[in-house]
C-alpha cells in the first residue's frame, strides 16, 4: 500500500489536539493523561475512594479557592479570577437536543421493527452485542472498564497507524468469514415459522 493510499487515522480521529494525544504526537500530553487516568483508577478501584465524595471535595476546594481569590483581589487591589462567561448558548442547546432526538428516534425505530415487525435478524444483531456487554460488565467494575477503554484508546489507534497494511488484510479475511457465517444464520432464521400479521390480529 502506497503512502498516498494510506488511511489517515489522524483525520479519522478529528485531526485536532485529541488526535495528536491519542497518536502520541504530543507525547508529554499523552503521558500526563495516562498517568492521571491511572491515578484516578487506583484511587477509585484499589483505594476504594467514593466518587461522589471525590467530586464534592474537588468542587468544595475549587469554590473555596475562587472565593478566597476574589476576596483577596478586592482587598489587595489585584485582578479577579479570569473566569469566562459560564453559560450555554441557545444554539448549542438546540444542536445537542437535535442530536439526541435523532438517536432516540433511531432506537425507537429499531425497537418497533423488533416488536412489531418480528425481525429475527435485527433482534440477533441487537441482542448479541447487549449480551456481550453484559457478560464483560460482569467480569469488571465500571471504573476498570473505563480504564481499559482509555488504555485501548491510547494503543489501538497508534498501532493501526503504524501497521495498517497487515491489519487491514487480517480484518478483511475476518470480515469475509463473518459474512459467510451471518448468511448461514440468517437463512436458518428465515426458515423458522413466524405467525403472520393476520394471525396476530385474530389473536
Automatic annotation (TrEMBL):
Stretches assigned to the Reticulon domain: 18-203
S-adenosyl-L-methionine as UniProt keyword: no
Subcellular location: Endoplasmic reticulum membrane
UniProt keyword Magnesium, yes or no: no
Keyword terms: Endoplasmic reticulum, Membrane, Transmembrane, Transmembrane helix
Regions crossing the membrane: 50-69, 103-124, 130-160
InterPro entries from the UniProt entry: Reticulon (IPR003388), Reticulon-like (IPR045064)
Membrane topology reported for the UniProt record: Multi-pass membrane protein
GO biological process: response to bacterium
Top-rank lineage group of the source organism: Eukaryota
GO CC annotations, alphabetized: endoplasmic reticulum membrane
Coiled-coil annotated spans: none
Main subcellular location of this protein, as a coarse class: endoplasmic reticulum
Any Pfam family hit: Reticulon
Cross-referenced PANTHER family: RETICULON, RETICULON-LIKE PROTEIN B11
Protein name in the entry: Reticulon-like protein
Protein's organism: Sesamum alatum
Amino acid at each position: 500500500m502506497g503512502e498516498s493510499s494510506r488511511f489517515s487515522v489522524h483525520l479519522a480521529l478529528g485531526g485536532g489536539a485529541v488526535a495528536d494525544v491519542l497518536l502520541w504526537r504530543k507525547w508529554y500530553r499523552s503521558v500526563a493523561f495516562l498517568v492521571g487516568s491511572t491515578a484516578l483508577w487506583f484511587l477509585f478501584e484499589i483505594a476504594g475512594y467514593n466518587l461522589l465524595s471525590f467530586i464534592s471535595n474537588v468542587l468544595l476546594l475549587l469554590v473555596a479557592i475562587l472565593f478566597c481569590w476574589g476576596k483577596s483581589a478586592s482587598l489587595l487591589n489585584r485582578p479577579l479570577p479570569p473566569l469566562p462567561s459560564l453559560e450555554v448558548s441557545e444554539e448549542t442547546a438546540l444542536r445537542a437536543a437535535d442530536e439526541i432526538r435523532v438517536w432516540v428516534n433511531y432506537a425507537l425505530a429499531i425497537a418497533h421493527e423488533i416488536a412489531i415487525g418480528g425481525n429475527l435478524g435485527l433482534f440477533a444483531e441487537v441482542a448479541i452485542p447487549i449480551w456481550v456487554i453484559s457478560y464483560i460488565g460482569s467480569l469488571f467494575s465500571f471504573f476498570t472498564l473505563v480504564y481499559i477503554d482509555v488504555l485501548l484508546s491510547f494503543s489501538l489507534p497508534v498501532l493501526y497507524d503504524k501497521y495498517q497494511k497487515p491489519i487491514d488484510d487480517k480484518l478483511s479475511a475476518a470480515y469475509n468469514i463473518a459474512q459467510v457465517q451471518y448468511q448461514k444464520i440468517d437463512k436458518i432464521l428465515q426458515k423458522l415459522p413466524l405467525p403472520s400479521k393476520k394471525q396476530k390480529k385474530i389473536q
